[in-house]
């Protein structure tokens, strides 16, 4: 994305690449004041902006006009049909639980008349990050143990300031700590872009 100037050129760059595996990605442009999410898999990318009708039409979707967000599941019909774990299993339910935390957190900040800046964005990233707990309600709990943890990296990005707020996993075995429960570090990206 370092070779793109705005959202359109970032999307064009993405379209010129070859997807090999399924992940959800997002890119934003401070120049445009917009963000897009990509539901990807080999040979397919579904692009999502604010209030996308595919997300609106889903009984589990909760899009916003002023935010674009996603966890691990998909909303594009092709994505949903081809995701290997997009069923009623534990991973799917956990992803939906975490997806539905976003509106709760957005509304909380809105009700408090609090703009979402870097600190609030890192807080949202930490809360929705999977901590490996058996109980979804433990999403606010960073007390060990983390029996099923896989949260290796958690990032919030401020495109206008070119700063990332990054946390990563640490330790192994019973001493393992998920990224969402570690300290976030501010990384100034201006020297790279």
Summarize the helices and strands and which ones pair or pack.
Elements: H1 7-15, E1 24-29, E2 34-41, E3 44-48, H2 53-57, H3 77-82, H4 90-99, H5 101-111, H6 118-128, E4 153-158, E5 163-168, E6 185-188
Antiparallel strand pairs: 1-2, 2-3, 4-5, 5-6
Helix pairs in contact: 5-6
Q: Please give the largest β-sheet.
A: 3 strands, antiparallel
Mean pLDDT: 88
Number of strands: 6
How many angstroms separate the termini?
Answer: 9 Å
Shape: globular
How do the helices and strands follow one another from N- to C-terminus? HEEEHHHHHEEE
Secondary structure class reads: alpha+beta
- Radius of gyration from the CA trace? 17 Å
Q: Tell me the strand percentage band.
A: 15-25%
Helix content bin: 25-40%
Specify the number of helices: 6
Adjacency order of strands in the biggest sheet: 1-2-3
The parts where pLDDT drops under 50 for at least 5 residues are none
Q: Short description, anyone?
A:
This protein has 193 residues and is an alpha+beta fold. It has six helices and six strands, in the order αβββαααααβββ. The strands form two sheets. Strands 1-2-3 form a three-stranded antiparallel β-sheet, covered by helices on one side. A three-stranded antiparallel β-sheet has the order 4-5-6, with helices on one face.
């Amino acid at each position: 994305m370092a070779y793109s100037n705005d959202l359109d050129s970032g999307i064009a760059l993405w379209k010129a690449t070859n997807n090999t595996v399924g992940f959800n990605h997002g890119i934003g442009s401070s120049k445009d004041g917009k963000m897009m999410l990509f539901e990807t898999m080999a040979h397919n990318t579904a692009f999502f902006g604010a209030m996308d009708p595919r997300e609106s039409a889903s009984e589990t979707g909760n899009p916003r006009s002023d935010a674009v967000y996603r966890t691990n599941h998909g909303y594009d019909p092709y994505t949903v049909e081809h995701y290997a774990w997009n069923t009623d299993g534990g991973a799917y339910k956990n992803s939906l639980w975490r997806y539905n935390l976003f509106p709760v957190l957005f509304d909380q900040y809105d009700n408090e008349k609090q703009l979402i800046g870097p600190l609030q964005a890192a807080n949202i990233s930490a809360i929705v990050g999977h901590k490996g707990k058996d109980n979804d309600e433990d999403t606010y709990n960073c007390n060990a143990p983390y029996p099923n943890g896989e949260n290796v990296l958690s990032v919030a990005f401020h495109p206008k300031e070119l700063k990332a707020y990054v946390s990563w996993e640490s330790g192994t075995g019973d001493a393992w700590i998920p990224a969402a429960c570690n300290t976030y570090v501010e990384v100034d990206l201006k020297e790279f872009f």
